[in-house]
Automatic annotation (TrEMBL), chain A:
This protein's name: Serine/threonine-protein phosphatase 2A 55 kDa regulatory subunit B
Gene: PPP2R2A
Annotated GO CC locations: protein phosphatase type 2A complex
Annotated keywords: Repeat, WD repeat
Gene Ontology molecular functions: protein phosphatase regulator activity
Native source species: Cyanistes caeruleus
Entry keyword Repeat: yes
Similarity field: Belongs to the phosphatase 2A regulatory subunit B family.
InterPro entries: PP2A_PR55, PP2A_PR55_CS, WD40/YVTN_repeat-like_dom_sf, WD40_repeat_dom_sf, WD40_rpt
From TrEMBL, chain B:
Name of the protein: Cell division cycle associated 4
All copies of domain SERTA, residue ranges: 47-94
InterPro entries assigned to the protein according to its UniProt record, in alphabetical order: E2F-SERTA_domain_protein, SERTA_dom
Gene Ontology cellular component annotations, sorted alphabetically: nucleus
Biased composition (Polar residues): 144-161
PROSITE patterns recorded: SERTA
Gene source species: Cyanistes caeruleus
Region entry Disordered, spans: 134-161
One Pfam family in the UniProt entry: SERTA
Coiled-coil region(s): none
């Protein structure tokens, strides 16, 4: 299969992908592109969330995550709620589409709090959700806001015991002296009820805002990272955590760099990486020392002097880091690009994909309206052959690492007929705007796609706009 | 004007393209209206003006940080780094000195220091005051406090003397000088902003929530971030020695009495 091929020398990959062109052959010859070869045709499947344009602040989606089987899809929002969708069992007769995702459970994960020491509010916004692999009938996930991580158990109840003879009809307890027989209650079926209960609360370990959580491959420990520190927890123990990275300078005046994301390696339980606001990624080995302040590897690409500006540092700040499923590569997202790094090569990425290079000349305006600080996430598909990330105007981008083709799609209610194939979009950077192209100046910078997720096994993707969740699938023939 | 309102669609000014190529263009760029032998000289002020407005924008952004729920540390650090970059370049250019003598007549060092205060303060907000009064902190937090012991000790002991607390936040010796410097820096910001056309200030703030550019609110926001959460402390705030009589916005800056009044009322 194309995606299994790893024989290409890295140098070739690097050369090919450095071209910042937007119009690949795919888009110059649309008639050829759509169905050619192994290309996926993406179709609208579902959209969740309010229809009206007036967005309630609490409904803003702040994280999206599939579980390990892909059967469950969790979203977190600014109001501290978690909504879990479950995929219906595949309908064998209707082979054209996979099961739909319907609401499975909704619960309030975090409440707004008040920090009395600093007289500041602690937002209830869910920053990240991570699923634990399923070990028994129940599902477990970790959800976190700025300060507190919670382990939630989601379990189903479809039976209840009936037949107690201890209570009257109205619920009052019978007088014990009137009870003369022993009746063992029997389980009878009931309507399915999905319960979410908090099993562990991991609090008071972070002075700064938590930006990442990542579960270790040992399934016993996990890390939580804030702006300056990373802590290691055991899932069973809530009153203790170990600090494994601390980049807080002795003198806060000297602070010039913060931690922006962190993740455990998918296979090696002693390895993790963290990214910084200066565009560097550090790989650390917990076996080397208790406090991993000294990295084992430092991944950094030398700056391109021709592109230097006052905004160079800001746009180099990494907003997300994700290991490939194989564990051989990791992907980073900075403001304008997605980079794929080989863990064995520290001095530069092996592949670079430009997400919206047309914004490079608009950086000053984007700095003024704060868009330059937007933190976009990125994700891999199940086979590590395609990567996806979001952009503005409700556009999202996918890059096929093997074919080197990329595509821009839009999450919009206009295309909301099921099995409608999404039309590729194109942004016109300058000059004459062709038909169906959108000029940079018409882009809506309030419509940003920061969170996307890819089903671990299938070609099903979840894309979050401000307050709606879109689910797209590939066209099955 | 260089500063455009914050809207999704905007008419892009030359500003963006100029900035991208900013560092390369010490020499003449054909796009400017420059003529003849003065070409080089005229190009530079234009770039400097752009750079200056970027600096002003950044300083205002840093100040706005103070007012949020809790300042986003990453954003503050990135903006502060940008400010530092600009200042370094301006110092190398020699334009730092030039601008200072023109607008404020103060030594360049003062200006650097005062900007530094602004950069520092947002971090200090995030740093917080770890008063060792709660026993529920876990181990990590306690060891963290041990590291910050010098800060916490001074902070704890300053509960009785808010003036000292404020000076700890700003990390300067003399509170009076401290307050003076801070006011100076804000004065400078507004002076430089006023040097531009009036429209620019409005443009800058047009899309911003009213409370953000209300200086009183801004300052009370900062003050409330530093208070310990007990109303008692407010009463021990001593009044400043300098008073103001004029009613405009800027003079309110000089009037801590007014600020304390607002705090007590709210």
């Amino acid at each position: 299969m194309l995606s299994d091929r790893v024989g290409f020398p890295h140098k070739v990959f690097g050369l090919l992908s450095k071209q910042p062109k937007q119009n690949t052959w795919f888009q110059r010859f649309p008639s050829l592109g759509a169905g050619g070869g192994n290309d996926i045709q993406w179709c609208f499947s579902q959209v969740k969330g309010a229809v009206d344009d007036d967005v309630a602040e609490a409904d803003i989606i702040s994280t999206v995550e599939f579980n390990h089987s892909g059967e469950l899809l969790a979203t977190g929002d600014k109001g501290g709620r978690v909504v879990i969708f479950q995929q219906e069992q595949e309908n064998k007769t209707q082979s054209h589409s996979r099961g739909e995702y319907n609401v499975y459970s909704t619960f309030q994960s975090h409440e707004p709090e008040f920090d009395y020491l600093k007289s500041l509010e602690i937002e209830e916004k869910i920053n990240k959700i991570r699923w634990l692999p399923q070990k028994n009938a129940a599902q477990f996930l970790l959800s976190t806001n700025d300060k507190t991580i919670k382990l939630w158990k989601i379990s189903e109840r479809d039976k209840r015991p009936e037949g107690y003879n201890l209570k009257e009809e109205d619920g009052r307890y019978r007088d014990p002296t009137t009870v003369t027989t022993l009746r063992v209650p029997v389980f009878r079926p009931m309507d399915l009820m999905v319960e979410a209960s908090p099993r562990r609360i991991f609090a008071n370990a972070h002075t700064y805002h938590i930006n990442s959580i990542s579960i270790n491959s040992d399934y016993e420990t996990y890390l939580s990272a804030d702006d300056l520190r990373i802590n290691l927890w055991h899932l069973e123990i809530t009153d203790r955590s170990f600090n494994i990275v601390d980049i807080k300078p002795a003198n806060m005046e000297e602070l010039t760099e913060v931690i922006t994301a962190a993740e455990f390696h998918p296979n090696s339980c002693s390895t993790f990486v963290y990214s910084s606001s200066k565009g560097t990624i550090r790989l650390c080995d917990m076996r080397a020392s208790a406090l991993c302040d000294r990295h084992s590897k430092l991944f950094e690409e030398p700056e391109d002097p021709s592109n230097r500006s006052f905004f160079s540092e800001i746009i180099s700040s990494i907003s997300d880091v994700k290991f490939s499923h194989s564990g051989r590569y990791m992907m980073t997202r900075d403001y304008l690009s997605v980079k794929i790094w080989d863990l064995n090569m520290e001095n530069r990425p092996v592949e670079t994909y430009q997400v919206h290079e047309y914004l490079r000349s608009k950086l000053c305006s984007l700095y003024e309206n704060d868009c330059i600080f937007d933190k976009f996430e990125c994700c891999w598909n199940g086979s590590d052959s395609i990567v996806m990330t979001g952009s503005y105007n409700n556009f999202f981008r996918m890059f096929d690492r093997n074919t080197k083709r990329d595509i821009t799609l839009e999450a919009s209610r206009e295309n909301n007929k099921p099995r409608t194939v999404l039309k590729p979009r194109k942004v016109c950077a300058s000059g004459k705007r062709k038909k169906d192209e959108i000029s940079v100046d018409s882009l809506d910078f309030n419509k940003k796609i920061l969170h996307t997720a890819w089903h671990p096994k299938e070609n099903i993707i979840a894309v979050a706009t401000t307050n709606n969740l879109y689910i797209f699938q590939d066209k099955m023939n | 004007m260089f500063l455009t309102p914050v809207v999704p669609h905007w008419p892009f000014q030359n500003m963006d393209t100029m900035f991208v190529r900013g560092l390369k263009r010490k020499c003449f760029d054909g796009e400017e209206d420059i003529e003849g032998t003065l070409a080089g000289i005229k190009a530079i002020p234009s770039y400097n003006l752009q750079r200056q407005s970027l600096l002003d924008m950044s300083l205002v952004k840093l100040q706005l940080c103070h007012m949020l729920v809790e300042p986003n540390l990453c954003r503050s650090v990135l903006i502060a780094n940008t400010v530092r970059q600009i200042q370094e370049e301006m110092t190398q250019d020699g334009t730092w000195q030039m601008i200072n003598t023109q607008s404020t007549g103060q030594a360049s060092l003062d200006r650097l220091v005062s900007t530094d205060i602004l950069c520092r303060s947002s971090r200090d907000q995030a740093e917080g005051k770890h008063v060792p009064a709660y026993g529920t902190f876990n181990k990590d937090f306690e060891s963290d406090q041990a590291q910050d012991s010098s800060e916490t000790m001074s902070t704890a002991s300053s509960v009785q003397a808010p003036r000292n607390l404020q000076s700890n936040v700003w990390e300067m010796e003399n509170p009076q000088e401290n307050k003076g410097n801070f006011q100076k820096s804000l004065d400078q910001i507004f002076e430089t902003l006023e040097n531009k056309s009036p429209n620019s200030v409005e443009d800058l703030f047009s899309e911003v929530d009213n409370s953000y550019y209300d200086l009183d609110t801004m300052l009370t926001g900062m003050m409330s971030n530093t208070k310990m959460g007990h109303c008692d402390n407010l009463e021990t705030f001593s009044t400043p020695t300098n008073t103001a009589s004029n009613s405009n916005c800027k003079s309110d800056l000089n009037d801590l009495d007014h600020i304390v009044e607002i705090l007590v009322e709210s």
